[in-house]
Amino acid sequence: MRSTVRRALVTGIIFALAATLPAGVAHAAIDPSPNFQQAPLPDQFTILKMGSRGIEVHNAKKRLRDLGFPPGNLSSTYDSALRMTVWAFQKANGLRPVDRIDLPTWQALLRPRRIRPLVGYGGSERTEIDLRRQLLTVWRGGKPVLVTHISTGARRSYCEKGHCGFADTPVGDYRVGARVPGWSTGVLGSMFYSVYFNGGIAVHGSTLVPRFPASHGCVRVPLHNAVPLYRLLQPGDPVYVRRPEVRVERRPEAHPERPRRIPRARHPEVPRDPRGRATSARPAHGPRGR
């Protein structure tokens, strides 16, 4: 009963906040909880997952869109587009990608991590592809305007339909070339709104964009991001593909290793007379051999 009343109060306050927003603020974020600006508690946030419906799903989509992670439509249903958008947001904030918006994800939505460029000389208009985190970021005016989950080359040999090769997305500096709108079908499958940047390797929409590298070399993106990327990536725009190394912080040792102290060898006790003078008697264990 208490949880039902609390949810009703949350929904009412959210609608009240939405009504008070200025008309000119087109991308104003609506907090998914009335206590979103305070220290979060586990029972103040609803875990959202595939199939969830309601105002909190809608507000989460708006918040992601405002942060540069397009979730597709702004409906109140947790769909596959939101699922992959949440993956991208979680990876960009150092979280493990999971199929839900949990407490750590809500906290990241409140205080998102700053997105840093992969290259320092890329210029204000560029596209960066992170092969390690499987993320693509479009920069405009020196700011990230679109971040999406991707699936790149699986880095394995393949032979399909008489075509053999090695599935890899090479690291390097490239530029946008040919652009093909709509669906196009090649030897290895179908592509949606393709943008080529390295020979036959393109950024394109796909119906299969798993959480791991699985393509033949192209950069697969969710279908809902294919058209926005097609409009953003113009011929001649730079594209940087990188595989950043994982940074491992080494803590300095509190105490440097000291040489081990070797104890002195103990000699058999020398027999002495009552006055303390050494005698010539042999130890009790018998005479020594030569």
TrEMBL record:
On the tree of life, the source organism's domain of life is Bacteria
Q: Which SUPFAM superfamilies match?
A: L,D-transpeptidase catalytic domain-like (SSF141523), PGBD-like (SSF47090)
In which residue ranges is the amino acid composition biased (Basic and acidic residues)? 248-276
Where in this protein does the record put region Disordered? Answer: 248-290
Domain L,D-TPase catalytic: from-to ranges: 125-242
**Has UniProt tagged this entry with the keyword Transcription?**
no
Pathway involvement of the protein, from the record: Cell wall biogenesis; peptidoglycan biosynthesis
Protein name per its UniProtKB record: L,D-transpeptidase family protein
